[in-house]
Amino acid sequence: MTRKQTHFINREHPVIDIQRLEKSFGDLAVLKGIDMQVFEGENVVVLGRSGTGKSVLIKIIAGLLKPDAGTVMVLGQNVAELDRKELQALRHSIGFSFQSSALYDSMTVWENLAFPLEQTGKRFSSGELQSDIEQALEAVGLLQAIHQLPSELSGGQRKRIGIARTLIMKPKIMLYDEPTAGLDPITSGEINALINEVQETYRTSSIIITHDLTCARETGDRIALLLDGVFIHTGSFEEIFSNPDERIKSFYDYNFIEQ
Fold first, then answer.
1. DSSP letter at 141?
2. For the segment 95-150, what is each residue's pLDDT rounded down to a tens digit?
3. Residue 180 has pLDDT above 80, yes or no
4. Structural domains of the chain ordered from first start
5. With contact defined as beta carbons under 8 Å apart, do 148 and 157 qualify?
């Protein structure tokens, strides 16, 4: 069943505004002048096959890659024009959930969550640190894993801890890179539900990069289908996949698994 749109989306205030974005690597043009907006409180799914430039897009949004042309405005700031200090400050408002979870194997879950807080340079009492870590773990349903190592956790649990580590910074924007990749259908469903819970509880605006149609259907308020470096269609899941475009039908038939 398709998820319902949340009621608090503010379509007057884009938190991400992308205009005519281009990016190439050598002779390979990956993004060919795309436009995109993400509004306050909205989950936008960028859907496409592997290698279509989905991950490049969110790396540009996070300032990890420079665009060749176009503008990327995030929370009112032009990302390409920020200096190192300004970019670091902006990233404190952005939660980046990596496909690999990107946890430090030698650190316990507690230490993994404490690390980004300590990197801010702010002073935290031991009580404040403990409270913030417990709150983030409770949000992803894994408080009991607080003293475990990542190697002792399942793939789905590591994904949850990775999300908790971003939530501890109380971000305004969440960027999810293939959040259900490599997970079984039941665990994927749990991650999809968590993405929606994060949106509701933390009032985040999110971009969800995926080629998983079940993930797109269950998490996206709006979907942008990326093909050959451009968005060929945007809209709700039903609007996208009721379109007679043969390119969309073949993508649906190849990827979709009913649950």
1. T
2. 988 777 788 999 999 999 999 888 776 777 888 889 999 999 999 999 999 999 99
3. yes
4. 10-93+173-255 (3.40.50.300), 105-170 (no CATH)
5. no
State the angle between helix axes of 126-139 and 155-167 in degrees (0 to 180), rounded to the nearest 10: 130
In the block, which residue shows the tokens 């451009």?
Answer: 230
Residue 44 DSSP symbol: E
Tokens of 33: 């002048």
Q: In the chain, at which residue ranges do the beta strands (DSSP E only) sit?
A: 10-25, 28-40, 43-47, 69-74, 77-78, 94-97, 173-177, 205-210, 222-227, 230-235
Q: Report the alpha-carbon angle 75-175-116, nearest 5.
A: 85
pTM: 0.90
Q: How far is CA 201 from CA 130, 231, 232, in A?
A: 20, 30, 32
- pLDDT confidence of residue 259: 40
The predicted-structure confidence for 202-217, as pLDDT tens digits, reads as follows: 999 999 999 899 999 9
- Sign of the dihedral through C-alpha 104, 107, 110, 115: negative
| Cβ atoms of residues 241 and 254 within 8 Å | no
How far is residue 207's CA from residue 167's CA, in Å, rounded to a whole number?
Answer: 15
